[in-house]
Design goal:
alpha/beta, 6 helices, four-stranded mixed sheet, Zincin-like
């Protein structure tokens, strides 16, 4: 009998967590938003001043990158200040790479743009507040694929 109570409370917590997420009213956008949240819950996000492209060391300061083990996302603060692109957009982009590792870059970029437009301000705020670190770490070498 006690086992059933534990299962109920666990499932209640899981459904309660889902209900606390902001929604847009669009089922497709909300589904992608939930998938992005699931990805970001399973990895760590770090903010650093500069990130160099590992494939081309002369290309300085890319917006974001995923580690080779797909457990960390690095976001560049300097690049976002320079190009005036929202850091949440890059967070969505990198989470989509984790969700769909075999999809080409240009399709990920298109999906990122669509998702950023379709997410509500409260969903973007939720991502910014809950998943983008407040402090910047020192630049480190990033092991990428």
């Amino acid at each position: 009998m006690n086992e059933n109570v534990g299962v109920r409370s666990l499932s209640y917590r899981a459904t309660k967590k889902r209900r606390l997420l902001p929604t847009s009213g669009d089922r497709l956008s909300d589904s992608f938003f939930r998938m992005i949240i699931d990805v970001l819950d399973s990895i760590s996000v770090r903010k650093t001043r500069e990130i160099y492209n590992p494939k081309n060391r002369h290309e300085k300061n890319i917006c974001g990158i995923i580690s080779a083990d797909r457990e960390k996302i690095y976001l560049s603060t300097a690049r976002h200040q320079k190009i005036k692109e929202p850091i949440v957009s890059t967070l969505i982009h990198e989470a989509l790479h984790v969700l769909m590792p075999d999809v080409r870059e240009r399709y990920i970029h298109r999906l990122e743009n669509i998702m950023y437009i379709r997410l509500t301000d409260s969903q973007k705020r939720y991502l910014r507040v809950h998943y983008i670190p407040k402090h910047t770490i020192k630049a480190q070498s990033v092991d990428t694929v």
